[in-house]
């Protein structure tokens, strides 16, 4: 904590004082209280692109063309102009300084999508270590696609989804990965999770989790595919024994299926069409079975307990689908399971859902919870940061305000908890945000709750479109004196003339510089107003 | 060794041999008193390798919960009597909503 609010006094104090242990980042961040993007250039003349995001290291601004077929990358720079004469502070900025090009230099514009494909403008992942970006293009969605070749019914199909790995420095496409007749939920990075150099892609249609690795040279390499098989050599093992299995089935046709308790694979539960449950489903069912078996200590009551808790719901458990996946560390995945009805719906609160922790190395489940489990909620409350899976290459993720690293956010959560009428409803709502989408929050220090207070409904670190108001959004200092530091007003300076039109705004904050872009779109007019906020 | 280092001992008598006392009018002996350990009880065990636990704390909690479910539950009578007669059983802090 600095003793003075004056920036010069703070710089001097920084020379002579060391911060408290492990708070050097927070100490340095306090300078953002003095350097705020208080000046706005309204309605900048800029190319008509949809601006997506600043990369987390602040080196690039990613945008897509309006027709969703081209990628344009800019380098954010800073204004440089000089002013002759006295009293420069009160001079207006010259017209040249107010241009978009003064802040952003176009690096390149490249075509990503061919004629029948479109870039998914909500999808972008960045790997800071190699400065590579992952983009996705897809063809149109086909609803009511027939469930062929192992596909699940009820999930639409997309003819071709291509992931492009692009080196952002010069726009070279390093590698591509194509999925045919598949469905991957690409909205807001939902179906793909990047951890360090590992990528988890959830194929909803084939119920498989593809794990890929991004090598240093930029190649996308398949590591494993979890779904039908859990270990890399499962398929080989089953195929080499297939002749044995066919023969033994013929012999066992007239015997009733024996329930082997000690086996971890339920391969004696033969489904009428003679196909096995998928590998991951077998692992899950075995884990649930063993959990219930071990819970009941009395040997005579074990079978009763199993009947009540497991076999009654067996078909529901067997029909569970993988909804979303995230990494918790290099070997563990957090998988959300649910029914097929809720797999694509936005508000999945009323669908039953389960969370499971899967260890890829051991190919077995470690934990399984209902989506209103209090045990999981208490872990979530204490260790939310670990659910965001910070990796060595993205250290600034650790400093984004969450309720396990920031007292103000924690207070907000406590208020909501105390106000809620039913604890299990509250738990369900809190756990509904799991698994977290990857790279969905801005690391900008202006969203740090210990520095500034702002209306979370109008603006926040999560990059989503929000309802726009004509009033500017205020950022107020948390510390004494609790004054207004700067305002962000999306939209034109005088407010737009059209009163009742619904406007949505989005904000892109640079992670390091006091620079932000706000874009306001009026829904039916299709035009957008772009403002640049910076520190003059 | 004068007031600078407070007369503390060292394990090597040749340490601090370069030190010159700040006050030349009071030449005190520069060789520090030396102490050597007489036992090896405090030595680290051979082949000890200290490294960070690879599983982060969240994953450790998941594994701990899984192991607790596998462990046999204590009989009710054991739970009622405190393990150490003089101590009070402590309420679990990890699961209490604060």
Automatic annotation (TrEMBL), chain A:
GO terms for molecular function: ubiquitin protein ligase binding; ubiquitin-like ligase-substrate adaptor activity. Transmembrane segments: none annotated. It comes from the Eukaryota. Pfam families: Det1. One of its GO terms (cellular component) is cullin-RING ubiquitin ligase complex. GO terms for biological process: positive regulation of proteasomal ubiquitin-dependent protein catabolic process; protein ubiquitination. InterPro entries: De-etiolated_protein_1_Det1. This is Light-mediated development protein DET1. It comes from Nepenthes gracilis (Slender pitcher plant).
TrEMBL record, chain B:
Belongs to the DDA1 family. Residues 1-52, 67-98 are annotated as: Disordered. It holds the Pfam family DDA1. Residues 3-68 form the DET1- and DDB1-associated protein domain. GO terms for biological process: positive regulation of proteasomal ubiquitin-dependent protein catabolic process. It comes from Nepenthes gracilis. InterPro entries: DDA1-like, DDA1_dom. It comes from the Eukaryota. This is DET1- and DDB1-associated protein 1 domain-containing protein. GO terms for cellular component: Cul4-RING E3 ubiquitin ligase complex. Residues 15-41, 85-98 have a biased composition (Polar residues). Signal peptide: none annotated.
């Amino acid at each position: 904590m600095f003793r003075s609010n004056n920036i010069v006094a703070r710089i001097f104090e920084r020379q002579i004082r060391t911060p408290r242990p492990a708070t050097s980042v927070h100490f340095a961040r306090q300078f953002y209280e003095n350097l705020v993007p208080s000046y706005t250039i309204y309605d900048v003349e800029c190319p008509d692109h949809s601006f997506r995001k600043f990369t987390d290291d602040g080196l690039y601004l990613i945008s897509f063309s309006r027709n969703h077929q081209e990628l344009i990358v800019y380098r954010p720079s800073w204004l440089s102009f000089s002013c002759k004469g006295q009293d420069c502070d009160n001079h207006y900025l010259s017209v040249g300084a107010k241009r978009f090009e003064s802040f952003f230099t176009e690096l390149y514009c490249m075509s990503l999508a061919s004629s029948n494909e479109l870039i998914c403008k909500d999808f972008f992942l960045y790997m800071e270590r190699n400065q590579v970006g992952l983009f996705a293009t897809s063809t149109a969605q086909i609803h009511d696609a027939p469930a062929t070749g192992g596909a699940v019914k009820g999930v639409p199909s997309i003819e071709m989804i291509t992931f492009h790995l692009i080196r952002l420095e010069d726009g070279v496409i390093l590698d591509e990965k194509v999925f045919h007749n598949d469905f991957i939920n690409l909205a807001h990075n939902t179906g793909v999770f990047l951890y360090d150099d590992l990528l988890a892609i959830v194929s909803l249609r084939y119920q498989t989790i593809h794990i890929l690795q991004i090598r240093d040279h930029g190649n996308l390499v398949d590591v494993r595919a979890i779904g039908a098989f859990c270990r890399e050599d499962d398929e080989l093992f089953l195929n080499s024994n297939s002749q044995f299995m066919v023969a033994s089935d013929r012999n066992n046709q007239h015997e009733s299926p024996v329930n082997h308790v000690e086996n971890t694979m339920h391969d004696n539960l033969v489904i009428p069409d003679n196909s096995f449950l998928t590998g991951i489903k077998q692992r899950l069912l075995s884990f649930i079975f063993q959990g219930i078996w071990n819970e009941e200590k009395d040997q005579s009551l074990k079978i009763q307990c199993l009947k009540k808790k497991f076999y009654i719901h067996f078909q529901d458990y067997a029909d569970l689908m993988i909804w979303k996946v995230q990494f918790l560390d290099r070997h563990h995945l957090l998988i959300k399971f649910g029914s097929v009805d809720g797999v694509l719906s936005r508000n999945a609160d009323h669908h039953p859902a389960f969370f499971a922790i899967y260890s890829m190395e051991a190919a077995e489940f470690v934990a399984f919870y209902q989506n209103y489990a209090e045990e999981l909620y208490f872990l979530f409350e204490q260790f939310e940061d670990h659910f965001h899976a910070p990796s060595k290459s993205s250290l600034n993720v650790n400093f984004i305000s969450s309720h396990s690293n920031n007292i103000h956010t924690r207070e907000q959560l406590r208020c909501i908890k105390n106000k809620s009428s039913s604890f299990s409803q509250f738990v369900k709502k809190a756990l509904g945000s799991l698994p977290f989408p990857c790279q969905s929050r801005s690391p900008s220090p202006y969203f740090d709750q210990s520095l500034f207070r702002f209306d979370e409904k109008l603006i926040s670190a999560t990059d989503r479109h929000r309802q726009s108001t004509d009033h500017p959004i205020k950022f107020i200092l948390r510390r004494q004196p609790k004054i207004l530091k700067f305002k962000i007003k999306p939209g034109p300076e005088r407010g737009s003339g059209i009163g009742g039109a619904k406007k949505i705004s989005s904000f892109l904050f640079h992670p390091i510089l006091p620079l932000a872009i706000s874009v306001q779109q009026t829904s039916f007019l299709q035009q957008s107003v772009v403002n640049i906020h910076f520190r003059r | 060794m004068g007031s600078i280092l407070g007369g503390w001992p060292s394990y090597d008598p040749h340490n601090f041999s370069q030190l010159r006392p700040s006050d030349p009018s009071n030449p005190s002996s520069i060789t520090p008193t030396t102490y050597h350990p007489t036992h090896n009880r405090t030595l680290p065990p051979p082949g000890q390798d200290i490294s960070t636990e690879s599983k982060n704390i969240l994953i450790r909690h998941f594994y701990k919960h899984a192991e607790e479910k596998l462990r046999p539950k204590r009989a009710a009578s054991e739970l009622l009597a405190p393990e150490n007669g003089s101590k009070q059983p402590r309420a679990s802090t990890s699961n209490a909503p604060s």
